[in-house]
Amino acid sequence: MLAAVIFDMDGVLIDSEPFWQRAQMAVFSELGHPHSEADCDSTIGIRIDQLVAHWYRLRPWVGPSQEEVVQRILDRVNALILSEGQPKAGVLEALALIEAQGLKVGLATSSPFAMVEAVLGKLGIRDRFLAVHSAEVEPFGKPHPDVYIHAAEKLGVLPMHCLAIEDSFTGLLAAKAASMRALIVPDPALLNDPRLAIADHRLDCLSELDAEQLASWVAGK
């Protein structure tokens, strides 16, 4: 039986993937390495420092350090969140359904804690989450499972009794590696990705979630 639901943040709670894309394309262009939408899509769900290190290995630049590039991207994303951030369709309704089932609610994200607080504050839902955990403090980001395992620990629930909600294959791998059940609500860039078949459940939008469906998942069906 389920005892908790753990949300990913970017692309699940808030439509921030376009913000990450805009920030990456702007910053990498400034470094002399134009970034395409396909480049951005290839790293969805990866922790920002690992993302920057990945592109530095493939397309090294002269000038700012990797740490400075990370901060430039984070600053741009934060500014976009504060000015344009909106909850994804169905998020508020899904939270209400989950709470009505008596389930604990947590968050496990690759984004740093400062950005988590910015997003939850902007959306007005900080008090809906009993536990928040970021891969910022983990040795490895997703797809390593630790961010999910430690989020479950904060909730006081075994991972096998948690449902993770993800939008990326990277995050889905992390949730499954943590021995959690997983609901994929795929990013539009991944709609036809056959790898998403490893998810236990799939919805095209969180607004499709209903009480009967959730109750069946809670019961282990």
From TrEMBL:
The keyword rRNA-binding does not apply. Pfam families: Hydrolase. Gene3D superfamilies: HAD superfamily/HAD-like (3.40.50.1000), Putative phosphatase, domain 2 (1.10.150.240). Its cofactor is Mg(2+). SUPFAM superfamilies: HAD-like (SSF56784). The keyword Metal-binding applies. This is 2-deoxyglucose-6-phosphatase.
